Amino acid sequence: MFRAMTDQNTAIRIPLDLLPADGRFGSGPSKVRVESLLALGATGTSYMGTSHRQETVKQMVARARGGLAALLDLPEGYEVLLGNGGATAFWDAAGFRLVRSHSHHAVFGEFSSKFAQAMREAPHIATATTLESAPGTHPALAAVDGADAYALTHNETSTGVWMPVARPTGADADALVLVDATSAAGGMPVDPAEFDVYYLSPQKALASDGGLWLAACSPRALGRIDELGDRWCPASLDLAIARDNSVKDQTYNTPALATIFLLVQQVEWILDQGGLAWASARTRESSGVLYDWADAHELATPFVTDPAIRSPVVVTIDLDERVDATAVSAILRANGVRDTDSYRKLGRNQIRIATFPSVTPDDVRCLTACLDHVVDAIAR
């Protein structure tokens, strides 16, 4: 049985010399670098509170689109589209303009399941099939007769499993590969030749705020948008409208300007450090510190048993029943170390820690020292 949370537990104090310099480890919204916030404040009256149709904002959108294209090393002919609503809205948009009639989904956690559910419920989609595996694993996506769109998640934020981005062998020649990259983009490598749409919300590895979606689209995906242009679609979810506005470096309706600004700050910072290769090495280093800690501690175990598919950006660690993970997260929060809680629907005695590029490996090392202190104090 878990040891119950008590006032004594919450009173546990972590020595100051163990604490990280920045205690934010949330899986989304994630740590936003202080430098980005200061840069936003320094714009004064020149950016925030101005029309999104004016040059100051259009230039920022251009930097966001161009920066993401550079970060992902997109080939010629690919376009970065953007619109309001986040990845959840993009699932519906994809149903109107990217899926003809049959989508096939790799389902291995909360977020990968939601796109499949959205397509099953859409009256204009004839078939939405799934290939599922248990949380902590991922399925091997294979070609399915008649599927015109394959959906997979590069990194399942709810479970801490990553899945390779690859076109299914034997898929129809014009079938699209749609990849949810919300917690992967900016922290994990990817080959653009293996996807047609790599879409995301920027509040995770790209260290911005929510409410916006971005999608790197191949020429084949852009052609599908035109092909399905006669299908009725709400204007706010119409990817043709989003494309026509995006290439003009604007959005169809008013975006959150701060979100775009913070996104640009993060993307350009990663590019300045060495791009996706640098970011990927950094996230592997940080996550490796945590996996090594869990492997070595008698009261902790990495949730994902196969090291080959353990996420480099979202680490999930099961705790022994002698230690209540909820209590651990509460004590850490009381000491300024925040957002280590497990994903609520997974229902495990678990902590979940983001190791996105903004999180420093040194702070992760400090976190393991804090975990040693707290876990040992509770288990005594």
Structure description:
This protein is of the alpha/beta class. The protein folds into two domains: about 5-35 and about 275-380, Aspartate Aminotransferase, domain 1 (Alpha-Beta Complex); about 35-270, Aspartate Aminotransferase, domain 2 (3-Layer(aba) Sandwich), CATH 3.40.640. It is about 35% helix and about 15% strand. The chain is built from eleven helices and twelve strands. A seven-stranded mixed β-sheet has the order 1-9-8-7-4-2-3, with helices on both faces. Strand 2, helix 5 and strand 3 (about 125-130) form a beta-alpha-beta unit. The longest helix has 22 residues, at about 275-295. It is globular, with a radius of gyration of 21 Å. The two termini are about 15 Å apart. Mean pLDDT is about 95; it is low at about 1-5.
Average pLDDT, rounded to a whole number, is 95
Q: What order do the SSEs take from the amino end to the carboxyl end, as H and E?
A: HHHEHEHEEEEEEEHHHHEEHEH
CATH topology of the largest domain: Aspartate Aminotransferase, domain 2
Report the span from N to C terminus. Answer: 15 Å
At the fourth level of CATH, the homologous superfamily of the largest domain is Type I PLP-dependent aspartate aminotransferase-like (Major domain)
Oligomer: single chain
Q: What's the CATH class label of the largest domain?
A: Alpha Beta
Low-confidence stretches: 1-5
The total count of helices amounts to: 11
Helix-residue proportion: 25-40%
Number of strands: 12
Task: Give the strand content.
Answer: 5-15%
Please tell me what the overall shape is: globular
The main β sheet shows up as: 7 strands, mixed
CATH architecture annotation of the largest domain:
3-Layer(aba) Sandwich
SS content category = alpha/beta
- What's the number of domains? 2
> Using only CA atoms, what is the Rg?
21 Å
Strand order of the largest sheet: 1-9-8-7-4-2-3
